[in-house]
Write a structure and sequence with these properties.
This protein is an alpha/beta fold. It has 18 helices and 20 strands.
């Protein structure tokens, strides 16, 4: 009967940074029917998941019992026996101080096919992100990994602390926060020099990473004083001293900044990624959701597409909705062969290119004023322009085109609404504080103000706007936008934020 079963993939997704998952691991997430994931998995990791996948949070903690693990095993088995492609998503590496080996044994006994996809372990990644190489040709030629989750007072401990204390290399202890004081005492009693450098790293590789350095003798006291909570990695050895020179992650321009991302869920990932690369903690709170409108009317105009000399796109949203309507009619880009396509911004251009549209007319400055000037310059009087856009389109842009003698057919093809999920989490997000709120459209501004029931929670927050129109919307609700992108792109927006905090 095994041939009728589905398959299980034990996938290590790395220490926290969602981009540290392997290419194979990401591919499997995109293809999975069911994803069973642990408590410490970065929620952004699930952005890679198949949108139709069943997501099951099995939230194990360090205090989990064998019974809880048995329940997890049963869930994995049940889903596999239903013929599902199951991804068991685990932090770090499945076979390093995890229960991947135990889960594999159970699957083997049940004759369920399984695969193991190794992941980047926090035992290496956390020190790396803290600027500490676990080995160094001139300092340490060996590294010892130790689980700090074993009861070191039990009679038959598998850990030989005396041997570990005398390796002469680097020691990395995972899951040892609750027993940190006992672990350091065992090492000292085993013969390690109490003055040996030590570092403890919380949430390694994440934008809210925190590192404390000291010695074996005092690292536990320092961690207690700063109320450092799990998950942590303890690094012991002379390599810790290299942190002063190699600390690259915690010195990034936006490290430690909590940045609110208000774009739609589908569009937020790129901005979040760019912010993370600069050390920030992106907090995604979509304030708008795109809802298509007037599609039948749009399709009627598409049937008459040869009447238009231009089609103008001011957002990637309008591109996606327009081309879906085009394809649903049985049309394709060949029907647009004699039509000039104009757009604002690289994101809009890339959306067009994804549908095979080349030679897009685009202004050097990404705003509607520059786009209007370009169209007027390249067009002739009475040419027909199709403008599929948001309900909140820019009237000044249309007026400019009409004043130049152009015939503009506007179609409001989408509107924005406030996502239901955002309503339930908006106040919770602000409890931990926000350093910067980013806005990429007027809709995101108005959506956030509606979500929060006013602007009180935003008065002490830095406001970053993607362009003048968005900045004007910020000022209209009674706020001041003190960060303005030079171009209407998320890349420029991040650069403007960096420049602001570099002052």
């Amino acid at each position: 009967m095994s041939e009728t079963y589905g398959e299980v993939y034990l996938v290590g997704c790395g220490p926290g940074d969602p981009e540290l998952i392997t290419v194979k691991g990401m591919r499997l997430l995109k293809d999975a029917d069911t994803i069973i994931y642990d408590r410490l998995i970065n929620s952004r990791m699930l952005d890679f998941a198949n949108p139709n996948a069943e997501l099951i949070n099995v939230g194990k903690s360090s205090k989990s019992t064998n019974l809880e693990q048995e329940k997890i095993n049963q869930i994995i088995i049940e889903k596999a026996k239903l013929g599902k492609k199951v991804v068991r998503l685990k932090g770090g590496d499945p076979f390093l101080f995890g229960r991947g080996g135990e889960e594999s044994e159970i699957l083997s006994k049940q004759h369920i096919p399984f695969h193991v996809v190794p992941g980047v372990t926090s035992a290496i990644a956390a020190p790396s992100y803290a600027g500490i190489p676990v080995t160094h040709r001139k300092i340490a030629s060996s590294v010892t990994f130790v689980s700090g989750n074993e009861d070191i007072n039990k009679k038959n401990s598998n850990i030989n602390w005396t041997a570990i204390s005398n390796t002469g290399g680097t020691i990395v202890v995972l899951m040892g926060r609750s027993k940190l004081n006992k672990i350091t005492h065992e090492l000292i009693n085993g013969g390690i020099n109490p003055n040996t450098p030590a570092a403890i790293i919380r949430w390694g590789s994440e934008p809210h990473q925190k590192t404390i350095t000291g010695t074996v003798a005092d690292i536990s006291l320092l961690a207690d004083r700063q109320q450092l909570l799990p998950p942590v990695a303890l690094v012991i050895g002379d390599v810790v001293n290299l942190r002063n020179e190699l600390n690259w992650f915690e010195t990034l321009p936006l490290f430690g900044k909590r940045v609110l991302v208000t774009r739609t869920r589908s569009q937020a990932s790129k901005l979040s990624m760019l912010l993370s690369e600069q050390g920030a903690t992106p907090i995604e709170l979509p304030t708008i959701e795109i809802v298509p409108t007037n599609i039948k009317y749009l399709q009627e105009r598409i049937k008459e597409i040869n009447e238009f000399s231009w089609i103008v796109f001011t957002s990637s949203n309008s591109v996606e909705i327009f081309f879906k309507a085009l394809i649903d009619l049985g049309f394709d880009t060949r029907n647009l062969f004699d039509i000039t396509i104009a757009a604002i911004g690289n994101a809009t251009k890339l959306s067009l290119e994804s549908y095979g549209v080349k030679n897009v007319i685009m202004p050097k400055t990404f705003n509607t004023e520059s786009l209007g000037n370009l169209i007027v310059k390249k067009s002739i009087v009475n040419e027909n322009i199709l403008l599929p856009r948001s309900q909140l389109g820019h009237d000044e842009f249309v007026t400019k085109l009409q004043s130049a003698g152009l015939q503009v057919k506007e179609i409001d093809i989408y509107k924005t609404v406030i996502p239901k999920k955002s309503k339930t989490i908006s106040n919770e997000i602000f409890q931990d504080g926000i350093d910067i709120a980013t806005f990429t459209s007027s809709s995101t501004v108005n959506g956030l103000v509606d979500l929060l029931g006013g602007i009180n929670q935003l008065k002490d927050v830095n406001i970053a706007s993607i362009g003048p129109v968005t900045q004007a919307a910020v000022e209209k609700v009674g706020l001041s936008s003190n960060i303005l992108a030079s171009e209407s792109t998320v890349e420029s927006l991040v650069e403007a934020i960096k420049a602001h905090f570099a002052k």
